[in-house]
Each structure stands twice: as C-alpha cells, then as structure tokens.
Amino acid sequence: MVAALVSSLVVGAGTVAAAAPGRAAPASSTSNALPAAVREAVRFELPRPTGRHAVGVTELHLVDRDRPDPWVAGADRELMVGVWYPARSARRYPRQPYMPPGVARHADESGSFGLTRPGEVDWASAMTDAASAAPADDRTARPVVLYSPGLGDSRAFGTSTAVELASRGYVVVTVDHTHECAAVEFPGGRVEFRKPPTADTPTRRKAVETRVHDIRFVLDRLAVLGAGGNPDAGKRRLPHGLGRALDLERVGMYGHSAGGITAAEAMRTDSRIDAGINMDGTLQYTGTEFLRGTATSMGGVLWPLLAGVVGGISWHLPFGVYLLGVPLGIATALLLPRGRPNGPGRPAGEGPKGREVLRRHRILLAWYGLQFCGSLLLYALVVFLPQRLAEAGVGDPLPVSLYTVGMSGAMSLIGLAYARLRARLPYSVLLRGAPALWTAAFLLLAVAPNAPLLFLAPLLFGLGQGVFFPVTTVLIGEGVPAAVRGQATSLSGTATFAGQFASPLLIGPLIQATSLTTGFLLAAAVPALALAALWISRAGATGPRPGVPAPSPAPAPASRTE
Q1: Most-buried pick from 57, 153, 270, 353 (CB within 10 A)?
Q2: Across residues 408-422, what is the average pLDDT?
C-alpha cells in the first residue's frame, strides 16, 4: 500500500497546475493581462491510475442518530463519504465528476480556495477515472483504507490517491467532515458549509475529536455494509457486490495535515485500524500542547532492573534511584504553561465540578472503583512479593527484580497485541478478563510451592494490567461528553493514586496481623468480587464486537444509527 500511495502522490502532484491537453492553458502573465471576460476558464485532468483494476465509485450518506452535530445545534451528525473500489467492469457506466456540482460551484465562487479569481478554473468539468455505481469486483475481499483530508479541506483533494489505490486492489473510503469542511453536498443538492473558525486551539482540538468520532462511525456503518445491509440514510441503491468486497479485518488509514493527525488518533482509540500514514500532520495543537499519546511499559522494565542491580550494593540505593523523580517533577512544574486552556467564551474555572461529573455519569464510579482495585493490588504485589520470594529461597536483589520485570514485560506484550485482541473480543470480555487474571495471580502468590511457579503470578498480573488500562481509558473517555473528558480523565488518575496510597495502609496491616498466605488469599478475594459484580451487572457489555455487525443484514436497529 505504501508504494501505491507514494506513486499516486508523485503522479498527482504534477497535474495540479497542468491544463488538459488541447485545452486552455493555465493563466500566465500574458493571460492575466487580458480582461476577465476574454480569458477562458482553465480545465484540468487528473492523472490516470496505474493499477490493473478498473475503478468504481459510489457515495454514502451516513447519519448518526446517536450523536448530535458538534457544530450545529439540534442536528444529528451526518457525513458524506466516497467509496472507491476495484470494479468488474467500467464499461457503460458514466465517469464520476471530481466534485459534486454544489462543491464545484463553491470552489469557483471562493476563487479556487483563494488561489485565483472566480471563473478562472473550471472545477465542474473535471472528471475522475472511476465509473459511477459500477459493479464491484467481489471475487475476493479487499483491504479497506480510510482517508481524512486536511483541516477545512474537501475529500475531493484525495481523489487521485483514492483512485490509484483502488486500481491496485484496495477499497478506499474518503470522508468529508461536515461543517468543518468548506462545502459538502448531500443528496438532493443540499450544500452544507463550514461553520466554525479553524484558527484557535480549542476549535482545532474539538475538530480532531469530532473527526475521530466520524471515522469510528464510518467503520461501524461499513460493518453493516459488509454484512449485506445498506447503511445509506436514504437507502439508495448500492453497486452490486460492494459489501462482499470489504475485508474489515484489514483496515488502514491515511490523511493529510489534520487528516494525518486524525489517522494517528483514530489508530490510538480504535483497534480496528491496523496501520496508518500521517502525511504532513503535526501531533500537537501548539508549541507546548500535544495530542494525548499512549505510553508503553518499558519504564517498568528498566527501572526495576536498575534498582535490582544497585540493590546488590546497598538496600538504600534503589530508593535513591526513584528520588530522581523529585528534580524531574520540579522541572516539569516550572516548565508547564501558566495559563489554563478554556473553551470559547468560557472563563477559567467554569464548567461542572468533579462531583457534578460523577452525579451525571455514575457509570464512571464503576470504572474508577476498578482502577482503585487494580492500583491497590499492583502495589501490594510489588511491596510484598520480595517477602514471598524469600520464603521460596530467592533473596538476591537482581533475581527478585526479574520477577517485577516479568510483570512489566507482560504488560508491554499485551500492548503490542491489544489491537488484535480488541478486534476479536468486546470490551465486556476484556474487562472481565482483567480481574480474573488478578485473582489467579494472587492465588498463585498464596499457594505456589516454589520460585518457578511464583514467577507466573506477576506474569498473570501483568497480562491483566495490560488489558485493563486501555479498556478503562477508552470507556472513561467515551462515557462522557468531550466538554468534561479532561475532568473525567483527571478523576481517573485520582482513583489510581488513591489505590497506590491505600495499598500499604490496608494490605500491610492485614498481612502483619495474619500471614503472607492469608493476606494474598484475602487480596485475591477483592478482584474476585469485582469479577462477580461485572458478571452480574454485565457492565460494558452493551456495545457490539468491533467489526462485527448486528445479526440481521437489514438496516440497523433503532438503538443504533441509520
């Protein structure tokens, strides 16, 4: 795919300013001297695709009944997407225009996006090398590639790349982000124009969040198409075989500028997307404000090893290693910006408080409770595992540290495999799997007769942590509106640190009053109770499996979108 993409970009770049052969040449210094009425509008042609497949195209009008449009009050979120695909035959089917009539008219009236004057470029006459509504080549399911354009740009700007990739065997879905894009034409000729300004940082942040939700919704509707349903809001007839041509187990995404940022963020939040390309998109809103990223557990591998090595010299030195965090914390506090980011028209400090957020979104209490539980158990394992190993005859600092390294390594391995797990399992299964693994880990800590079996305990616990944190992070982020997502995430950190603080205060006295075995058995009861509560309440089990549509291939039920 990368080679095809690079090829399409190279051949496409040379056609932007080139007139079609035999037609009026682009405006030169001589033509600019002529009166506007005398000059003829420049016509242009797109590059021919180089792949061996004929290319077909269709449009889908998608309406998300469950999500209000963030830019327009009182309206559901609706999108227009283009689907470009290998076709069985392009004969007898009309070529698809480069732009719909309303978008072409807006492009001209805007002076070709500020590059020329109105009337100097004939956008409406440009045609693609794709046949409209041609039957899809459904003899094999094909990888699906999503495209998101730059901030304020039309999906038409990615047409040459989409056609090139489709000619090489991919199904390409290009997305217009309505009301952020300059103009989007819907069925019946209705044109929606850009609503928000795009220069300020809060709007850009909101735009990226909206785009990511758009992409995830498009994937949901493609799953309906792949199952034989028709996701188009107007139920317009679709090309024959289009749904069977989709392989939603192989999904990639690319984007330009803000579309590249969207691709990166969509990959982070939706494991259905396996690969992505960010073309010229920075991963930051300002010089100091970056997109939220994911951290690996490699620090959890390096720090225990270092502490284990220096612990062989003196037991004081491992604590000295962690004291390095003090100057780092002070430096961070000094370098952080003084201001507070606020939404447009909202003074600092306004908005719902933490208690109000919890009152409105009570499901958060369940996720915070699980995070408290996971953190409590994590530090109980780290603090009391050395004592348990001493009973099994392992006392040197370096071998002891390897047990902790095993836990962190298991977390890192789950991070690498998480996308595949998420593609096959719903959140409910993953969420229940975490406390099940925690329970097994602490049972092993209590009853394992030797050091090799004890090594399995931190491995199992690490696997549980590796599954648990990304799941709860997504559930917390998706469970609240964007306006309070930052507060919800902050409260998540509070729950985690509360568990760390409570661990030595609760587990320590318990073990001291009984024994290591009894303490670990009672600790195992905590995640076991959490697992039982999840099983009874079926929390997190409301969503469908990613990439797997509803059982019926008919239009989606009313509880979802149309």
Answers
A1: 57
A2: 78
C-alpha 510/C-alpha 376 separation (Å) is: 13
Among 374, 538, 367, 394, CA closest to 455:
394
User: What is d(CA 345, CA 165) in angstroms, rounded to the nearest whole number?
Assistant: 44
Are 481 and 487 spatial neighbours (Cβ–Cβ below 8 Å)? no
Residue 156, CA distances (Å) to 14, 178, 356 in order:
17, 13, 44
CA-nearest of 537, 541, 543, 546 to 559 is 543
Query: Strand runs (DSSP E) across 177-242, as ranges?
Result: 183-185, 191-193
Q: What is the pLDDT of residues 523-548, one digit of tens each?
A: 999 999 999 988 887 644 444 334 33
**Are 167 and 117 within 8 A, CB to CB?**
no
Query: Which sign, positive or negative, has the C-alpha torsion 516, 522, 524, 527?
Result: negative
Q: Which residues pair with 81 in a beta bridge?
A: 60, 175
User: What is the rounded distance in angstroms from the CA atom of residue 309 to the CA atom of residue 533?
Assistant: 42
Q: What is the mean pLDDT of the chain?
A: 80
Kindly give, in sequence order, each residue whose CB lies less than 8 Å from that of residue 457, ignoring residues fewer than 6 positions away. Answer: 381, 385, 441, 442, 444, 445, 448
> 422 is written with which tokens?
């998420």
Question: Distance between CA atoms of 248 and 548, rounded to whole angstroms?
Answer: 9
Q: Which residue has the higher pLDDT, 138 or 562?
A: 138
Specify the residue for token string 């396996």: 274
Q: How does DSSP classify residue 109?
A: H
Report which secondary-structure segment, H or E, holds 76.
Answer: strand 76-87
Decide: 184 and 99 in contact? Cβ < 8 Å: no
Instruction: With residue 67 as reference, give the H or E element that holds it.
Output: strand 54-68
pTM over 0.85: no
As beta bridge partners, residue 284 has 290
What helix, strand, coil percent values describe the chain, rounded to 5? 50, 15, 35
Token couple for 544:
């469908």
Q: Long-range contact list for 66-71, CB < 8 A, 24+ apart?
A: 66/560, 66/561, 67/213, 67/217, 67/561, 69/178, 69/179, 70/206, 70/210, 70/482, 71/178, 71/179, 71/180, 71/195, 71/196, 71/210
Residue 284 is given by DSSP the state: B
The two most distant CA atoms of the chain are separated, in Å, by 97
Torsion angle of C-alpha atoms 79, 82, 88, 93, degrees rounded to 10: 100
